[in-house]
Amino acid sequence: MRRKPKTAVEFVAELEAQPEYVARKREFEEKRQDSVRQHRLIARPVIEDLKKAGYAIKTLDELRTSGTRYDSAVPVLLKWLPLISDESVKESIVRTLSVPWAKPAAVMPLIAEFLGAPESADNLKWAIGNALRVVGDDSVFDHLRGLVRDSRHGKARQMIVLSLGKMKDPRVVDTLVELLDDEDVSGHALDALIKYDPRIAHRHLERFVGDWRPWVRKLAIKTLSKLG
């Protein structure tokens, strides 16, 4: 007689009965808690400065998700951005600066951080790129164009590429078409090109209908269908 497959509850119960699993789980949780304590310790001077500016918060994420517009917090965050070396805390500062009211003050400091971040800091660089998507505009097009064309920055450029689609510089199209050959950012370049001008994007869509990335295939097919 064929046995019924285990349910998720039964599978977890079996794991919980294994001493090795329980020990690994405890070790993982202890490391996680230690990481949280370390993060809060390093972020403490930033939090204290923000409290002096009128923000009664315990964490940077609390400010970011507060739903309030924290204009006067931006100078404090920009002050600490280059002073903090811990990647986790720096990323929290970057994400808190990823708001429209952080521009134009945050743009150049974020570009400097993007260029100065180690290549191994993938999450941090991607977060900075996303922040630049929010605060960047045509005034820094040359800087952003330089970043997206430098393949050494890998996938961290993806959100910056998207930002080009909302700019008016006449070089936007040539830049995005060039990036269609860069696999790290080609899908985002296609998306930005479609948003910039679907008619220009039309001539490049066929090559992506069989792309290995499902979301890129779907984007190409959907846009082709709309354009006929």
Morphology: flat
Number of helices: 13
**Separation, N- and C-terminal Cα atoms:** 56 Å
Number of beta-strand segments: 0
Measured as a percent range, the helix fraction is 55-70%
Mind summarizing the main beta sheet? none
Instruction: Please tell me the total number of domains.
Output: 2
What is the H/E order?
HHHHHHHHHHHHH
Tell me, rounded to a whole number, the average pLDDT: 92
Task: Report the radius of gyration as a whole number of Å.
Answer: 22 Å
- Spans of at least 5 consecutive residues with low confidence: none
State the secondary-structure class.
mainly alpha
Summarize the structure.
The chain is mostly helical and 228 residues long. The protein has helices at 8-16, 19-52, 60-64, 74-80, 87-96, 107-116, 122-135, 141-148, 158-164, 172-179, 186-196, 198-202, 214-227.
